[in-house]
Amino acid sequence: MTGNQHTHTASERGIRFDFADPALADAVRIGLTRVENLLRSVVQSDLEFVTETALHLVDAGGKRFRPLFTLLAAQFGDADREDVTKAAAVVELIHLATLYHDDVMDEATMRRGAVSANARWDNTIAILTGDFLFAHASKLVADLGTEAGHIMASTFSQLVTGQMRETIGPAQGQDPVAHYLKVIDEKTGSLIATAGRFGGMFAGVAPEQVRALSVYGDAIGKAFQISDDIIDIASPAAESGKTPGTDLREGVRTLPMLYALTDPDPQGDRLRELLAGPIADDNLVDEALKLLRESAGLEQARQTLAGYADQARTALLVLPAGPARDALDALTDYMVARTY
Q1: Residue 9 carries which DSSP code?
Q2: Element holding 87 (H helix, E strand)
Q3: What is the predicted pLDDT for the residue at 127?
Q4: Would you call 75 helix, strand, or coil by DSSP?
Q5: Which helix (H) or strand (E) holds 12?
Q6: Which family, according to the similarity comment (predicted)?
Q7: Nearest CA-CA partner of 300 in 226, 249, 208
Q8: Highest mean pLDDT: which of 116-125, 189-198, 267-276?
Q9: How many other CB atoms are found less than 10 A from the CB of residue 167?
Q10: Is residue 298 within 8 Å of 256, Cβ to Cβ?
Q11: DSSP per residue over 116-166, as a string?
């Protein structure tokens, strides 16, 4: 709190909302409390162990970006409707379910500062828990009507396709950059777009504004992923709060790397050698980071990020001016600024 200005901040891996308007901050806080209560009630099972595993990631926290965006999108209409709370819970349940499955595929041991479900129990338990959350998301969607069911089924299809696309990699001769951008559109942009769409729909927002919220969500989701890619290379640990080169250590080729690998500069040969697989040696990680920071790839990734930010800002022009639009506009600016 600064002076008499009430500020609420929410963030997830770098996505941050700053609400300078006290009424908006309070409305979103109250809405998130309703969502939390609903999440905890819907995952209860008569088998106590299932309840325990389902609550594992719910209780681990996270800043609930997707339901938060749903609630913020609803501010352009009647945000107090019960279906808005259900819609926000649906997108979070889908997101949480994908995390259980992602951790199995990635063989992760930690998630949100807690031991991952697959490490605490085993892969089977983690997969079944994810399925359990998908089932309860489906039950909530059924309450929201046929159109919502179609939208969520389509979104789920995109999430799975994006994961499959990432797993098999680009086809022979396919542009790796185009492949990567399609993956993040499906894996990240699609669910955030649906969060915005649901928030507007169930708050009774005009159809053209619902479309704008969906477009904004898709663009900001992709911008979020690319900005994370850039920070992993460009930002010292003291500034970003995360160890640089995590993607290099995991053998993940992100957008700045893909751009850098297309550079005809002779340094590109050394980068291709370094990026052939995961890098375990700290000195080699440092060498790769130095080459990437000096490459044109980093600036190209920033330009792509700026393009998605522009798409998001253009979508906002369709929405009425006010605190909710200001919050979304500030998020867009922050998404770009955090990479410098």
Answers
A1: E
A2: helix 82-106
A3: 87
A4: coil
A5: strand 8-12
A6: Belongs to the FPP/GGPP synthase family.
A7: 226
A8: 189-198
A9: 9
A10: yes
A11: -HHHHS-HHHHHHHHHHHHHHHHHHHHHH-HHHHHHHHHHHHHHHHHHHHH
Fold matches, 1-175+195-205 and 206-340? yes
The two structure tokens encoding residue 219: 């663009």
pLDDT, tens digit, for every residue of 176-233?
Answer: 999 999 999 999 999 999 999 999 999 999 999 999 999 999 999 999 999 999 999 9
DSSP code, position 81: -
3-state secondary structure of 18: strand
* CATH node for 1-175+195-205: 1.10.600.10
Average pLDDT of the chain is: 87
* Topology classification of domain 206-340: Farnesyl Diphosphate Synthase (1.10.600)
Tokens, residue 35: 């969502």
pTM of the complete model beyond 0.85: yes
Entry field: residues in the chain: 340
Top pLDDT among 333 and 240 is at: 333
**What number of other Cβ atoms are within 10 A of residue 84's Cβ?**
28
